[in-house]
Amino acid sequence: MTRTAAAVATTLFLALTSCSGHGSRGAPRVPILAAHAERRAVPYEIVGTGTVEPLQTVNVQAQVSGVLTNVAFREGDDVTAGQVLFEIDPRPFQAALDQAKAMLARDQAQARNADLQADRYAELVKQDYVTKQDYDTQRANADALRATVRADSAAAANAELNLEWATIRAPISGRAGRLLVRAGNLVKASDAPLVVINQIHPILVRFAIPEQSLPDVQRYRHKGAPLTVLVSSSKDDTAYSQGTLTFVDNSMDTTTGTVLLKGEFANGDNTLWPGEFLNVRLQLYVENDAIVVPSQAVMTGQQGTYVFVVSQDGTAHSQPVRVERAAGEYTVLASGVQSGDLVVTDGQLRLVSGAAVELKGGTGAGGEVEAQK
User: CATH number for the 46-56+199-287 domain, one of 2.40.30.170, 3.90.226.10, 3.30.70.100, 3.90.1150.10?
Assistant: First the structure.
């Protein structure tokens, strides 16, 4: 039934019920609310709860010990990779570097002289002016000094690295947390972190699904387009963030019978925040031509599930239905009703099959119907 036909049927029903507040036998009509069954595209979703977590988290620590002389950012700032965050007093490290370079220069000069001396002894030993032992001693001395030069070079490189580490830079881009140390404090290498940086663009939401749902996820995950993940702060929230499924854990949690998944979100507006709890909907596919009714219309009795369908004569009749699945505030029906059928959504507990009914508020009830479509 088209929307136009459904509207005509509803208008006829309102006209019938507005003529009299009683049924044909004088029994009072039961006030109800109703909505039309309709065809619509309904996604198949797995619902659950999740927690927001950063894409990366880094504890920024000092790699050398010294007095912190400068903090180059403010708490809560967005920082970029390579940005200067802290500065440690560089003077001790500069002095150590200068000393290491001086020792290197001295030993390089001695090594050059030792090489020349060994070369001279090599010529003299050929003419028997010096003994072979004297030549071997000079050559060993030259080799030892070359080794000393290599050690000095390593020491100078280490001193230069320590001086570089006196300036602490952001290892990743992200949002800086609260400062855990202030300028003037003595910091120690590999001690407590100075600040924690969380990468929140993009950001992750981790959630778990029952093991029974994993085969469906795996099947639809490998069909091409990434699976869509929707998150919101509450079940009734119509504003949600959309991301894509990026991770399925490689093992099942045998304690809970669930598997861990993660969705990635751009989070350009900072809607999602690390540690936040959210409602999660993982969409596997969309059923384009599903028959749906409001979930409150579906009742369960001894004979199974059923709805009350309102006839054009103003009476409601019990109609068995087969429920396929729930989809948010709607229920997808496999059989039992057709698109355009008017089903009772409120007042069923006072109904029996064939009872005369009246939409609450008279003609105003049409607004209720429209609101629930």
Answer: 2.40.30.170
